[in-house]
Amino acid sequence: MLNIVIFGAPGSGKGTQSERIVEKYGINHISTGDVLRAEIKNGTELGTTAKGYIDQGQLIPDALMIDILASVFDSFQDSKGVIFDGFPRTIAQAEALKKMLEERGQDVSVMLDLEVPEEELMTRLIKRGEASGRADDNEETIKKRLHVYHSQTSPLIDWYKQEGKYQHINGLGSMDTIFADICTAIDAIK
User: Fold this and answer.
1) Predicted model pTM
2) What CATH number is given to the structural domain containing 28?
3) Which of 6, 54, 137, 139 is the most buried (most CB within 10 A)?
4) Is 128 considered catalytic here?
């Protein structure tokens, strides 16, 4: 199976590129953001708990996220693989994901790191907030999210390098150019 972790700061294009990867390679997509937003919209207990963390610009507790991911992962029948979008965000989560996949005879094939300068991320997220009405796409919350990203998630780059799974992707340029770079990285491991 082709199991991909797509990585990058909020606004780096993970969702957009994930859709293209899913279409080309026929794998499933787990977006923790989409899963959590659905739970919040449906007013579930998980959604209410998650909303409290998200509204503060904080990460959801690891145990909660890995349980959600395992459940979604297990729901895919005859899957060619999965792209994990928005998870892991910490080394502890990466270790938990590795363990969860190992329990199923799987592992992460590659970690794609979409790198975009912070000024560009702010511009993209503010525009997205204006277009979509997402409450978490305002300047104050964006700054908190980027701070959390840099302080808690950037160490994952070194972790995945040590695992031999890291692949840098320049997240600036046309969507087609970025996607071509992603395909080159994926095809190199298949």
Assistant:
1) 0.84
2) 3.40.50.300
3) 6
4) yes
**Residue in 63, 66, 60 with CA at minimum distance from that of residue 102:** 66
- Give the active site residue among 134, 143, 144, 161: 134
- Whether 134 is a known active-site residue: answer yes
Instruction: Verify whether residue 89 is a known catalytic residue.
Output: yes
Q: What is the pLDDT of residues 13-44, one digit of tens each?
A: 988 999 999 999 999 999 887 888 887 898 88
Q: Could you give the CA distance from residue 56 to residue 146 in angstroms, rounded to a whole number?
A: 13
Number of domains the chain contains: 1
Domain span at residue 142? 2-189
Per DSSP, the residues of 113-156 read EEE--HHHHHHHHHHHHHHH--TT-SHHHHHHHHHHIIIIITHH
Sole residue written with tokens 């919350």: 141
Per DSSP, the chain holds a count of helices (H) and strands (E) of: 9, 5
Q: In whole angstroms, what is the distance from residue 114 CA to residue 39 CA?
A: 27
Catalytic residue among 37, 98, 128, 143: 128
